[in-house]
Amino acid sequence: KAGVTQTPRYLIKTRGQQVTLSCSPISGHRSVSWYQQTPGQGLQFLFEYFSETQRNKGNFPGRFSGRQFSNSRSEMNVSTLELGDSALYLCASRDQREGPGELFFGEGSRLTVL
Amino acid sequence: AQSVTQPDIHITVSEGASLELRCNYSYGATPYLFWYVQSPGQGLQLLLKYFSGDTLVQGIKGFEAEFKRSQSSFNLRKPSVHWSDAAEYFCAVGGTGGGNKLTFGTGTQLKVEL
């Protein structure tokens, strides 16, 4: 069974631009969440989706948004990029039949904002 | 608000030596507790989890952790470290409401000397 796939793996943007990151969860997993990882702030929860509905959201500004499609694939978007948005963005999927927090992470999308 | 403290930023052990990584949490009720590991350039992998019951939990790769409610701790242990265990280790706490929203500690970087 394939793991969580994130694309692109690396990208460079400039301030003010926007970016869209994609995540394909493990087959059969309908729950997808996103985390931001930075050296300064560590791992921070962005949002969680299940069956195309956002179930939970972290403390990030409205520039950060996401969505989930009917095939459980998810995208997150960051608009008006700032230097501080440079980070590794991790997507994780979960089988709802398993316990909470048992997440399977992708390798991440590393965003650099210049 | 829930929080996780990993007091050791870096730990160096010799191969074959025992390992203990410390984790303290703050949570108003009985938490769900997790240890994840991240190798360079990789996403996070779940090592083990505690939901309830036996306070000593076994995980993958020979790791175990002990939940001590009185000390609000969930320390990770391994009797004999292998060079391949070098990675960053994250303790996390989740709410009993379920879902994917975890609060992570800042991580402990493990170096293994041959």
Q: What does this entry look like structurally?
A:
The complex is a heterodimer of chains A (114) and B (114). Chain A contains no helices and 11 strands. Chain A is globular and about 40 Å long. Chain A is mainly beta. Helices cover 0% and strands 53% of the residues of chain A. Chain A starts with a strand and ends with a strand. Chain A has strands at residues 5-7, 10-13, 19-24, 31-38, 42-50, 53-57, 64-68, 74-78, 87-94, 104-105, 109-113. Chain B has no helices and 12 strands. Chain B has strands at 3-5, 10-14, 19-21, 24-26, 32-38, 44-50, 56-58, 64-68, 73-78, 87-94, 102-104, 108-113. Chain B starts with a strand and ends with a strand. Chain A binds chain B through residues 4, 31, 33, 42-45, 48, 55-56, 58, 90, 92, 94, 99-108, and chain B through 32, 34, 36, 41-46, 49, 51, 90, 92, 94-107.
SSE topology sketch:
The complex is a heterodimer of chains A (114) and B (114).
Chain A: E1 5-7, E2 10-13, E3 19-24, E4 31-38, E5 42-50, E6 53-57, E7 64-68, E8 74-78, E9 87-94, E10 104-105, E11 109-113
Parallel strand pairs in A: 2-11
Antiparallel strand pairs in A: 1-3, 3-8, 4-5, 4-9, 5-6, 7-8, 9-10, 9-11
Chain B: E1 3-5, E2 10-14, E3 19-21, E4 24-26, E5 32-38, E6 44-50, E7 56-58, E8 64-68, E9 73-78, E10 87-94, E11 102-104, E12 108-113
Top keywords for this entry?
heterodimer, A: 114 residues, mainly beta, seven-stranded mixed sheet, four-stranded antiparallel sheet, 11 strands, B: 114 residues, globular
